Each structure stands twice: as C-alpha cells, then as structure tokens.
Amino acid sequence: MSDVSFVVNGRRVSGTAEDRTLLVHFLRENLGLTGTHVGCDTSQCGACVVHVDGRAVKSCSMLAAQASGSAVTTIEGLANGSDLHPVQAAFKEHHGLQCGFCTPGMIMTATDMISRHPEGLDEATVRAELDGNICRCTGYHNIVKAILAASKAMSKGVKGRAKQAA
Amino acid sequence: MYAVNYHRAASVADAAKLVKSGDAKLLSGGMTLIPAMKTRLAAPSDLVDLSRISDLQGIKVSGKTVTIGAATTHYDVASDEKLRKACPALAHLASLIGDPAVRHKGTIGGSIANNDPAADYPAALLALGATIVTNKREISADKFFKGLFETALKDGEIITAVTFTAPAKAAYEKFRNPASRYAIVGVFVTKGKDGVSAAVTGAGEDGVFRSKEIEVALAKNFTAAALDGVKVPAKGLMSDIHASSDYRANLITVMARRAVAAANA
Q1: How far is CA B106 from CA A96, B177, B216, B232, in A?
Q2: A3, B48, B135, B163: which one has the fewest Cβ atoms less than 10 Å from its Cβ?
C-alpha cells in the first residue's frame, strides 16, 4: 500500500491505495469522480484521458502512485459551476456526441490539443491529434467541428477558469 | 495486474540500489510496461520509477552534438526547438509515435530499453550511429540492439542518455499499422561525413537492422532514383497478418525512397 496525494481539480486529496491501483480506478472508486471512463482498458480508446501536470495522459495506463504529487484535472474540473467550459459548450452546440461514453476523454484531449496550438487548428491537425481517441457513434465529423469551433472561441478570449483548466 | 511494490527513485544511484530488490523492473513512461503488467505478460515484484529524476530529463544541443536524457518524453523530443534545428528527422520521428497522450508519457530511454522490433527510435539510433550512455558505460547503437526485445543492458543497468552527432541530412519514413501505430516498416536514412546509413524497423525477425542493399545504392548516389530496381531480400523479414515478408521487403525500398527524398528536400 502507498499513501498517495494529489491536487485533483484544484482540491488537495490524499488516500491510501494498493501500489498496482491505476489512476483511473483511484479517481473513480476512491474519489467518486466517475466522469473519467474506462473504455478499452488497453490504451487505445482514450475514454480515460485526464490531464496530469497539464498534459493529457491515459489514466488507465498509469498507476495512481506515479501521479502522486501531481496536479490532476478530470472532466469534472472543467466547468465553472453551471458555466460550461468552451469545449464542453461547443460539443453541446455542434452535437459532438451521441452515446456520450467517449465524450469525457474527447473533451480532455481537445482542451489539451487547443492549449498546445494557440496559433489555431485546422481540420487535418484535429483529426491527427484525435488518433488516440475512439468514438463508435458519431463518425467524428461533429467532434472535429466542435473542437474547431472551441479553438476559435477560445482564441477570441473566452477567459476564466476554463482557460486555466485547459 | 499482480501486486507490485512501487518505488520512486530520487536519483540514478538511488534507482540502481532499488532495482536490486526482488524481481524489480525499471519504470519510465510505462507506456509498454504498465499495459504488459495489466495483461500479466509482465509481473515484476517491484517497480522503480525513473521518471522524476531531473538528471535524466532534457535535450542538449552543442554544435552538432545532441544529447537526450533517457527520461525525456516523445512529446519533448518532438517539440524541442533546438533539436528541430539540429536534427529535424528525429523530432519528426518522435511525433509519429503512438498518439498525443502516449507521447506525453513514453520516453526515449524506455523505448530503446524495451527494443520492440516495431518501435521507431531503434532505427534512428542505429542509423545515426548513436551512443547509449548508462550508469556503467557507453554502448554504441550497433552493439546495443541485440534482437527481439533484447539489448546489451545488464540486469539493473540504467540508461541515462543517448548522444549522437547530427548528420548533414536525415529523414524517417514510416508505414504504420493504423491501429497500433507501430511501424510495419520504418526506414531512417542519414548522410554525413562518415557516409550514408539506412536502418529499418518493423520488418526484421531479429529487430532493427541496417540494409546493405539500400546503403550500397545510396553511397553511390544519395537520391531516390538511385534506389530504382534495388531489391531487398525477404529472407529474415517478419510475416504476419498485416504484411508478408515479400510485402515488407518491397515496403523497405518504398520507405527508403521517400526518406531520401525527404532528406534532400
């Protein structure tokens, strides 16, 4: 067993976990943050993407112990109260989801992608950057549309907590 | 995953001590080791995490000499401005590994220590004539990569950095498996003062190798046209559901041609 402590969505949390506990399981089972999903459990699908120290990672391929001491942002940490993060708003506006299972990972990947491309995004880049996220419903079209719209909205300066989280 | 004891190493010396306990394994980005442990293909008793050791991080470029810390992530290799000037081919190669989330965690040291026969870095280090620096010694790339998932590393030996001289010209072209994103065939070509080299990953039954046929043709004339009619033997190449050995043999010349064109561009 290890003591682990991180800052999750701005809140300091700590706990004890078996060393083999994956970060995604710690988030879901110990912290009750069930927005982060386990899809394939083999690092392919990206439903489990969260940010660790500002970088998008697959939380099914990382031990909670590896993340101890880090700042973790999950899908629950993006909205500011009832104000959606611009990426969440864009997914809603452009209908970038159907069943919604992949959506938390898509949105965490999208916020990371947008923050790494402050110069803006084009469709080819968005599609290439979505390599590690699989969606079985949408055919990706509206996901790409939503990310492009969010990137534009954010470069126009939709500020606030949303930006920090990304 | 079977139970495991996790240790976070504070320094290379600390890691060298910790790795002696039980059946310990070194953990860097964990992008291969953690999935292998989840499927119980690997079951170490202890994990020694190298990823927070600051001495193993970062990229130094001094003149033509490039040194990359073993725990430097693929993302950092792909986006380092100094490296993109000194050896853009290697930065480009790193940008083709896995997907963005994998590149944020996976490291160059972890990749070469694992020596997957379809990994990208081994082709680059072999073609660049790189030196692999460990906590014990320096090993040249041609002596380091021994076979499938096999390297010259001794038990508990820790890669600290890789270093090479940036060549005048280099490029990497990869025909990737669209699902795994590993190379079905990847070819890294270089042209420098020591001549040309062409290293192939994804294809060899014994892992990464240099293609004599390609190198002989390119030594005479470093152009894509010089490879017209050049045949690489299918003997010793892998055959699987993705590609037969004949198909891979042909892909080697195709990727080499594209790589030379990119290196000359």
Answers
A1: 29, 18, 35, 32
A2: A3
Question: Quick check: B99 and A46 CB within 8 A?
Answer: yes
> Domains along chain B?
5-49 (3.30.43.10), 57-165 (3.30.465.10), 169-264 (3.30.390.50)
**B35 with A42: Cβ contact below 8 A:** yes
pLDDT tens digits, residue range A74-94?
Answer: 999 999 999 999 999 999 999
Regarding whether A47 and A19 lie in a shared domain, the answer is yes
Interface test with A, best of B32, B73, B99 (most A CBs within 10 A): B99
ipTM of the complex in this document: 0.93
Among A77, A95, A117, the domain boundary falls at A77
In A82-141, the residues whose Cβ lies within 8 Å of chain B are: 109, 112-113, 129, 131-133
Q: Identify the residue among B102, B174, B176, B177 best suited for mutation to test binding to A, counting A beta carbons within 10 A and taking the highest.
A: B102
What 3-state class would DSSP assign to B198?
strand
**Using the beta-carbon criterion (under 8 Å), do B35 and A2 form an inter-chain contact?**
no
Range of the domain at A39: 2-77
Of B5, B35, B101, the CB nearest to A132: B101
Interatomic CA distance for residues A164 and A143, integer angstroms: 22
In contact, B123 and B208? CB cutoff 8 Å = yes
Whether A52 and A114 share a structural domain: no
Q: How many domains does chain A have?
A: 2
- DSSP-assigned states of every residue in A117-148: -TT---HHHHHHHGGG---SSS-SHHHHHHHH
3-state SS, residue B186: strand
Helices (H), chain A: 23-25, 64-67, 86-93, 103-116, 123-129, 141-155, 161-165
Length of chain B: 265
